[in-house]
Specification:
about 130 residues; mainly beta; seven-stranded mixed beta sheet; four-stranded antiparallel beta sheet; 11 strands; about 0% helix; about 50% strand
Length: about 130
Amino acid sequence: QVQLVESGGGLVQAGGSLRLSCAASGRTFSSYAMGWLRQAPGKEREFVVAINWDGGRTYFANAVKGRFSISRDNAKNTVYLQMNSLKPEDTAVYYCACGYRSYYGDTPTVADFGSWGQGTQVTVSS
């Protein structure tokens, strides 16, 4: 079992940036793909971005392409989400998530992640 703890959320104006961090423990972090999911009020949880086990490949939801980036530091068991050019529609609780496998052939979905943290709130004001 893996434990994931997110940090870095907050309130930001539209057009601003935030960087989320996720510290992992309890499982071999470097063996698994990692991702970020989000859930807005009244909506289902959705896939945002993911990175394979060694950081060599990344996957993005269309809504965040060109604005968000993901990276990982396997030595620190940490994954990061850099969010730029934020929009009000990015407002959601963001969850760090651990994949079932080390990489994906196609863009993963929420179902491809088996564990996630408690979430961190991101609010983008217009």
